[in-house]
Every structure is written in structure tokens, then in C-alpha cells.
Amino acid sequence: MQTVLITGGTGMVGQSLTTHLLAQGYKVIIVSRSNSKKMIPGLTYAQWDVTKEMMDIPALQKADIIVHLAGAGVAEKRWSVKRKKEILDSRVDAGNFLVKLLSSHTHKVKTVISASAIGWYGPDTSQSLLQGFQETDPVDPSFLGNTCNSWEQSVQPLVSLGIRLITLRIGIVLNPKGGALLEFIKPAKFGLATILGSGKQMISWIHQTDLCRMIQYGIENESMRGVYNAVSPHPVSNKELVKVVAGQLHSFYIPIPVPSIMLKIMLGEMSIEVLKSAKVSSEKIQSQGFQFSYAHIKEAIQNLLSINF
Description:
- The structure is a single chain.
- The protein is built from 12 helices and 14 strands.
- By secondary structure, the chain is α/β, with parallel strands linked by helices.
- The chain has a domain at about 5-175 and about 205-230 and about 280-295: NAD(P)-binding Rossmann-like Domain (Rossmann fold, 3-Layer(aba) Sandwich), CATH 3.40.50.720.
- The strands form 4 sheets. Strands 4-3-2-1-5-6-7-12 form an 8-stranded mixed sheet, sandwiched between helices.
- Helix 3 (about 80-105) runs parallel beside helix 5 (about 145-155).
């Protein structure tokens, strides 16, 4: 079976993907700055350090596929000038380093699947509300839009190296152990549904399992290349999402509106993204034959909460 090397493999998505690929019979190499001693069949760890341009070359040369997820967490800290630079540089520098490695060393990598995000798109327009943002829509001139653009451009030279490149613009990944869903679960445990701002903003989400399946689908379908939105076919409003979460945990719950002004005070510039409505289309990936296991929010939340509780 093929060997998949994952950058950013110790993050939330990387951990889910590792478990998924191992279960499918793939061998997995996780590269990170520290060497883990976990003993799991089919899984090995290797060291890399982008800032020092250090890489375990023998590990790179074992890889048939690279899944490139590396990058500082967007929502982990308040967006200071320093943090915004870390978010951008961690993605661009890692992409540039990956290109340098694959252009200067012998290897057998045929495919690279690189993460991006739906932060590429701006707030909803009348057209996007009808059909969802498409992969051909222009980049939004915002911090996240510019970050996604630079992120995607950093790995684009791989195409000229003859490597099949797939870029996934990933939506809000629903995982009960981290990310946005965990933040909604915390108050929902106490019977509270925290509605952010108006609650009308559209959230383009994807179940963690479907994201892992989509990455595997990209690995195994050689006709795929270019940019794809990694989102469910059925985006939902913030209000609907939090009510579904609370409703799965309690037969009775209290909706608690969190005013936009409070979010702006708490989160600063990041509040723009929390309050932004972005309806993103999954039509392109579905036209490739990919079928979602969790296309609707209620079945997705039911499954995810059954994992966690």
C-alpha cells in the first residue's frame, strides 16, 4: 500500500486523517518539529523544521503522496499584528519549503493535496446566496483572503515539477474534540444555545469523516487536480447549527444571543470572520463523483456527538 506523508499531522484534521488512512491500509508518516515515540502499526514520525529548513530526507523519499496541512491555527489566538504574520508566514514558508524539497531531492511523490480555506471568499453576495461561492470566484481582499491566496500560490510551482496538485478550500470542520463545534458543545452541555450576532450568517461546514474521505478520494482519483471546495452540500445558519447541537444534548434548551458588539470586543478583528456569512458550493467535488456520508447538519451532529459522549 502507498505511503502518505502528512505535514501538520499532529493537528485536529491531521490526527483524524491519520486514523482514517491507517484504517484504509495506507502507511502514514507524520512530520513535525518533535519526534513522537507512539508505537502504532503503519505509522512513523519524522522531523522537519521549516524555520531551519531541516527535513528528514529519507522519510520524504518513502512518500508516494503528501498531504500538506501545516499552518498556525487561525482561531487559536487574538489577531495581533504579530499573530497575523505567524498565520501567513507559517503557511507560505511551509509551502515554499515543500517546493524546495521536492525540486532539489530525488523522490517518488506523484500527488500533493494541499489545504487552503474558504476564507478565500468574501461575505455573501446575492449570487452566492443563490448558488454558493464557486472555485472560480475571485479572492476576497481581506486578511484571510490574502492569506489563502498566498498559501495556494506557495505550492503552485509543484505543477511545473510534474506533480498532481489538489487544493482543498476547507470549510468549518466539525469535530467534537476541537474547533468550532467544541465551542458550541461547551454551553450546550448546560442547556444553552449560544447564537452569535444575528445568527443568520451562513456556515459552510464539513464533517471530519467526509473531509478525510475527500482527501482519500483525491489520492485515489487521478483525474482530480486543481481547486475544490471541501464543504457539505447543505450550509446552515449559525442559529440552526447551535440549535441542532443543543437539541441533541437536551430536550429543552435556552437560546442565548451573543451581540455582535460583544464579539467585536472579545475577538477583535477575528470577529469579522465569526460574523461573516459565506455560502460555499460543493458542486465541483460532487461532479467528480464524491458522495458525502454526512450531507445534512442533523445527521452529522448526531454522529459526532455519539462519538464524543
